[in-house]
Fold this sequence. Notes:
Elements: E1 5-9, H1 34-45, E2 49-54, H2 59-70, E3 76-80, H3 102-107, E4 117-121, E5 124-125, H4 128-139, E6 149-157, E7 168-175, E8 181-193, E9 196-200, E10 214-222, H5 226-240, H6 252-261, E11 265-271, E12 277-278, H7 284-298
Parallel strand pairs: 1-2, 1-4, 2-3, 6-11
Antiparallel strand pairs: 4-10, 5-12, 6-10, 7-8, 7-10, 8-9
Amino acid sequence: MKKTTLMIMAAGIGSRYGKGIKQLAAVGPSGEILMDYSIYDAIEAGFDEVAFIIRRDLEEEFKEVIGSRIAKAIPVKYAFQELTDLPEGFFLPQGRTKPWGTGQAVLAAKRLVDNPFAVINADDYYGREAFVKLHDYLASDERNASVEFDICMAGFILKNTLSENGGVTRGVCEVDLDKNLIHVEETYEIQWKDGTLCAEDENGNPVTVQEDQYVSMNMWGLQPSFFEELEAGFADFLKRKGMASQKAEYLLPRIIDKLLQKKRAAVKVLETNDRWFGVTYQEDRQSVVNAIQALVDEGAYRAKLF
Length: 306
């Protein structure tokens, strides 16, 4: 079987979380953070190494809180997502402070990763089932030879991914009967309001979503050839909108959806019924602590993971 890498995107500022670095918030009984559980599940599933994507100014704290500890259990690499890491001929627009998005985050690891890899967010709990399914898909020698990019995605059910404390952003998916992705749309402020499930598009206009729809939680399975596409696409993104906007982001769901529509990619949706939880807002933390403790009490995890 092929070697596989778990890539963890941990460079986001997390503006809705308020003060503090949400990716490093302790939620486990022995001070574990959410990444600990993802890494533990990934090791159990068979992943061979971890690549962290972080901000350079967080490097010392990150290694102190998690990196040095995890390196004792699995090989670890670091990549740095930087605002100024732009293709030749481009420059940082004056006043830009927002990261360039998940596409650039993954691109930052281009020189480090040459295995099939799974991408996840640092501040999400995904459940073990998803890691097993992604690992087995990536490690397999079987490939869809009819397209340039054979991709897989953990398909969560929307109702299992909501926060009680405010709106969330999800890649809402249209999927065929064979669990192939047809279309994914980045959708914002998804939340229950007075018994109605509400959502918005990127311009703040209301859109309709269903609680039993598949959604992407930025848990993708990709091949190393995808880096070249990310690099070319990033330059195109900057030409079209990146230089003229303080907030435009180069996002994986949009990149992958564009490849889908051009028939250059196929995406297999690997269904998981695990319940997501994460720290989007400060108020989420206690519910995450309670959920982790319940899993420990059930025997799913040790009280001290590593």
